[in-house]
Amino acid sequence: MANAPSRPLSPHLTIWRWGPNMAASILHRASGVVLSFAGLGILTWWLYAIASGPQAYDRFTAAARHPLELVVLVGVTWSFFQHLLTGIRHLVTDTGAGLELGINKTSAILTFVGAVVLTAALWFYFLGVAK
Amino acid sequence: MSLGDSSTPLGKVRGLGSAQHGGEHWLTERVTSIALLLLGTWLIASLLLLPQLDQRTLLEWLHAPSGAVPMALLVIIGFKHALDGMKVVVDDYVHEPGNNFVTNLVMLFLAVGGGALALFALARIAFGGVA
After folding, report:
1. DSSP assignments along chain A, one per residue
2. Predicted model pTM
3. Which domains does chain A have, with CATH numbers?
4. What angle do CA A127, A85, A131 make, to 5 degrees?
5. H/E element holding B56?
6. Would you call A130 and B53 a contact, using CB atoms and an 8 Å cutoff?
7. What is the DSSP letter of B15?
8. How far is residue A121's CA from residue A85's CA, in Å, rounded to a whole number?
9. Domains of chain B, earliest start first
């Protein structure tokens, strides 16, 4: 920049104090990036596996059961629910509602709790059903 | 303004202002997010309602229009929303005009290419035989 100001500019994680609100904001962005690459990548891979027949699909589920791959899949699922819930929160705050300090903090915490609960519930179901 | 800088304040800011497209981009991000809220809920609900999650069941699910059409919309709108979101991220962190242009170009090609791959896999499922 031509005349760089010495004051801190947003986004500036090293200067902002961590709190639920800013964590929700940066997690929305991070989970969006995860979904853009890993999420859509796995969705595409999954569609090809279904299109390519039972043997190809077995290879997909076998790969999905590898601990490392499972971490990626659970991470993508968590990103999905975190982005979905902070996304709803963003749509609400876009209307001008829910910006009061207390409500804003509570809704941020609710997105963290909701994302973890929904991810856990879905994976308990998947690991039980898709033997 | 320092000595030797002959440009006027108006001359400095010309061409640096809004491109008049920000509002449309912002609104498109919101509209696709609401569509993905519905389609994402549809995807999770469908996976929970399917009797099994083997290749045969998934193939029949996505072979029928009731599965193929929402999945096609999820792929198209998902890649569009990812592209819009990644543009915000790239524009926030990649400031040098040349790098910014190239990074956004790579994102565009990845989104269009990835979306085309996913749609081709889905087309094979939807229009192929259920053997």
Report:
1. -TT--SS--SS-TTTSPP-HHHHHHHHHHHHHHHIIIIIHHHHHHHHHHHHT-HHHHHHHHHHHHSHHHHHHHHHHHHHHHHHHHHHHHHHHHHTT-S-SHHHHHHHHHHHHHHHHHHHHHHHHHHHHH--
2. 0.87
3. 20-129 (1.20.1300.10)
4. 10
5. helix B55-63
6. yes
7. T
8. 16
9. 25-127 (1.20.1300.10)
Q: Which two tokens stand for residue A105?
A: 């903090």
Instruction: Give me the interface pTM, i.e. the ipTM.
Output: 0.87
| Cβ-nearest to B89 among A29, A56, A84 | A29
What residue type is assigned to position A72 of the chain? V
**Which residues of B sit within 8 Å Cβ distance of A?**
30, 33-34, 37, 40, 44, 47-48, 52-56, 58-59, 62, 71, 75, 78-79, 82, 85-86, 89, 92, 95, 114, 117-118, 121-122, 124-125, 128
Structure token digits, residue B99? 């790098």
pLDDT, tens only, B5-18:
677 888 777 777 77
Using CB atoms within 10 A of its CB, is residue B3 exposed (0-12), middle (13-18) or buried (19+)?
Answer: exposed
A52-98 pLDDT, tens digit each: 999 999 999 999 889 999 999 999 999 999 999 999 999 999 999 99
B43 contacts: CB under 8 Å, gap ≥ 6: B70, B71, B74
